[in-house]
Design goal:
Layout (H helix, E strand, L loop, with lengths): L13 H16 L4 H12 L6 H16 L3 H9 L3 H7 L12
Length: 101
């Protein structure tokens, strides 16, 4: 007999959470790095073969940028524990270059 345990909500892995916190700290220290994220979004938007989830993350980032203009609000949306926040944290490639000095 195979008994299934009920699934609870998924938790964000510790390494991904730590990476997101580092990105938020870098963005708050230097708000001009938002342009790097926008450039990454544009670069990946032009790629032909991307997973659907990655494309959804790009679309959600566009929503966040259109709804919020302040760096603090964008960082709050990134760390929020809702659907959009989880979707944005799932793909660290979108933050390529933000942590590099």
């Amino acid at each position: 007999m195979n008994v299934r345990r009920p699934r609870g909500p998924r938790k964000t892995p510790k390494t991904l959470q730590h990476h997101s916190e580092q990105v938020v700290a870098a963005l708050k220290a230097d708000p001009s790095k938002l342009e790097l994220i926008k450039d990454n979004l544009e670069y990946y938007r032009q790629q032909r073969h991307l997973k659907r989830g990655f494309l959804l993350a790009i679309e959600r980032f566009d929503w966040v940028f259109s709804a919020h203009s302040d760096v603090d609000e964008i960082c709050d949306a990134l760390l929020r524990d809702d659907y959009i926040g989880k979707r944005l944290r799932r793909y660290p490639l979108l933050y390529k270059g933000v942590l590099d000095d």
